[in-house]
Amino acid sequence: MSDLISLQRHDDVSVITLTNGENRWTTNLVRDLNGALDDVEANDGPHALVTASSDPKFFSNGLNLEWFTGNDVHEGGDLEPFAEEFMALAARLITFPMPTVGAINGHAFGAGFMWALSHDQRVMRVDRGLMCANEIEIGIAMPAPELAIFRHKMPQNAFYQTVQFAKRWTGEEAFEVGIVQELADESTVTEKAIQRAQSLAHLAERREIFGWMKEQIWGEDAAINGPHGPAHMLRNMREYPSGPGFGS
């Protein structure tokens, strides 16, 4: 599709592969990925998504700081809209109306870690590669929306180690605390992610339901963030949306 990504289909699974070495984030990468997600979402019937990397060492090494500071001659696109467009892309993946699996074959730092966590599930290389939110190490305050992703995608103790102390998670450590759902050898990370996605694809046969559920979990006035506990919600069920097809 571009010099930055490729898109292939494996039966009921679409695979978006980042193909730009360390896969550092720029506005152009964000926009290419949005275009690829449009193509994936246009598929009918049961379907799932995997994102992967062609580089044996990096899944994504975070923001392209050379471009961000204006010191890189390469074309990364317009800098001004990057933050807003990247956040919107992450939100789109979090609520994507089909199962999503990240094939974490190498390092995922900063924005790359955030992108990995935006998937429903993750398969990570067992013997090499680290995941780290290193903003505090490089003197960048993590914005509230990014903090929210980390808070809701990992256990509380792992969240604090991640955002406040820039802990570098190995594959085995990430698996032990539930940040990733499966470990694999280098040669099989993407294959295992595709297999996992294939096993989940049937859940998206009704896209409107699968997407609606994600919005209730991650979107505005999300059930897990609401001011009331489940007992109140159960007693007052008619005050809350029931979703498409409920009771049918």
Tell me what the structure shows.
With 248 residues, this protein is α/β, with parallel strands linked by helices. The chain folds into 2 domains: 5-202, 2-enoyl-CoA Hydratase, Chain A, domain 1 (Alpha-Beta Complex); 206-239, no CATH class. It has 10 helices and 10 strands.
Layout of strands and helices, then pairs:
Elements: E1 5-10, E2 13-18, H1 27-41, E3 48-53, E4 58-60, H2 65-68, H3 82-94, E5 100-104, E6 107-109, H4 111-117, E7 121-125, E8 130-132, H5 144-153, H6 156-165, E9 169-170, H7 171-177, E10 182-184, H8 189-200, H9 207-218, H10 230-235
Parallel strand pairs: 2-3, 3-5, 4-6, 5-7, 6-8, 7-10
Antiparallel strand pairs: 1-2, 8-9
Q: Please, what is the oligomeric state?
A: single chain
- Give the class from helix and strand content and strand pairing: alpha/beta
Helical coverage, percent range: 25-40%
The SSE order reads EEHEEHHEEHEEHHEHEHHH
Write the CATH fold name of the largest domain. 2-enoyl-CoA Hydratase, Chain A, domain 1
How widely separated are the two ends?
41 Å
Shape: globular
By CATH reckoning, the class of the largest domain would read Alpha Beta
Radius of gyration, taken over Cα atoms and rounded to an integer in Å: 18 Å
Unreliable spans are none
User: How many distinct beta strands?
Assistant: 10
Strand content: 15-25%
Largest sheet: 6 strands, mixed
Mean pLDDT: 91
Helix count? 10
User: Strand order, biggest sheet?
Assistant: 1-2-3-5-7-10
The CATH superfamily label of the largest domain reads: 2-enoyl-CoA Hydratase, Chain A, domain 1
Q: Which second-level CATH architecture of the largest domain applies?
A: Alpha-Beta Complex
